UniProtKB/TrEMBL annotation:
Primary localization: membrane
Lineage of origin: Eukaryota, Viridiplantae, Streptophyta, Embryophyta, Tracheophyta
Name of this protein: O-fucosyltransferase family protein
GO cellular component terms attached to this protein's record: endosome; membrane; trans-Golgi network
Family to which the UniProt record says this protein belongs: Belongs to the glycosyltransferase GT106 family.
Annotated source species: Actinidia rufa
Subcellular location as annotated: Membrane
Length: 251
């Protein structure tokens, strides 16, 4: 009886050893897999880093309107209904009217994505108000993930001239405020609105427009990742968001 018990114990030990061995092999295998995956992840990371080096290339590139590079960057967008129902423009819509209601000066705070979203929103808002958009001032929160330390200005995101040219049929854009208004802004004499991404077009027409008409300028401060409520804006957003969306998808 005793001897039998011993052999039983020994064979049990063998099984335990076998299971242990199997587990070790499995763990080793998993480690190899993980290591491989991590290497791939790393190279993807590298690829995303190189995005930030695009700009210098485009800066020296010939960006006149009939080059393939220009078309690739600023050409028509493919059909995007499946992705975003309002992203494809309608056939035609009116160019901005000559008469401007004034300047919309924008300060955008936030991380990379907030800033990108806000930019397309302000384009829509400027159009909505028949206003002239001043190239937004960017205040990136440097603690945000994915932001290069070089990212301190609008020009880091977009080539300003191309941005203005590409949106010429949607909204008038200028690089800076006229001198007198710049001075007024420095003295904090410009009416200021802190707007969130849930603000409606009605708000802009009802509250911002009268102030804009009176002062010829308003300042919008955006720190919420946008300044206009999402869909439901059908035509205005659908049509006017397009050029920015076009770029957004490539960023
Ligand atoms: C902007 O201009 C269009 C076309 O003239 C006009 O229909 C619209 O009422 C104007 N909107 C504002 C806010 O001035």
């Amino acid at each position: 009886m005793k001897g039998e018990g011993k052999t039983l114990f020994k064979s049990k030990l063998k099984w335990v050893g076998l299971v242990g061995l199997a587990l070790s092999v499995f763990s080793l295998f998993t480690h190899f897999l993980l290591a491989r995956y991590a290497v791939e992840g790393f190279s993807e990371y590298q690829a995303s880093i190189t995005i930030f080096f695009w700009r210098p290339i485009f800066e020296i590139a010939d960006l006149s309107t009939n080059t393939p590079l220009y078309r690739r960057l600023w050409g028509p967008v493919r059909q995007l209904e499946s992705l975003y129902p309002h992203a494809t423009p309608k056939g035609s819509y009116a160019a901005p009217i000559l008469q401007t209601n004034g300047f919309v000066f924008v300060r955008i705070r936030g991380g990379f994505h907030e800033i990108r979203n806000s930019i397309s929103d302000v384009v829509v808002v400027a159009r909505l108000l028949n206003a002239t958009l001043v190239i937004p001032e960017i205040q990136s929160t440097t603690s945000s993930k994915g932001i290069s330390s070089e990212f301190k200005s609008f020009a880091y995101l977009y080539n300003e001239d191309q941005f203005i040219a590409a949106l010429a049929k949607d909204v008038r854009i200028v690089k800076t405020l006229p001198k007198n208004l710049k001075g007024a802004r420095r003295k904090k004499e410009i009416p200021l609105f802190k707007v969130s991404r849930s603000v409606s077009p009605y708000f802009y027409r009802r509250h911002v427009l009268p102030v804009l008409n009176r002062h010829s300028v308003v300042e919008l401060v955006i720190s919420d990742g946008g300044c206009l409520q999402p869909p439901g804006l059908q035509t205005v957003t659908g049509e006017k968001r397009n050029p920015a969306t076009n770029f957004k998808l490539r960023v």
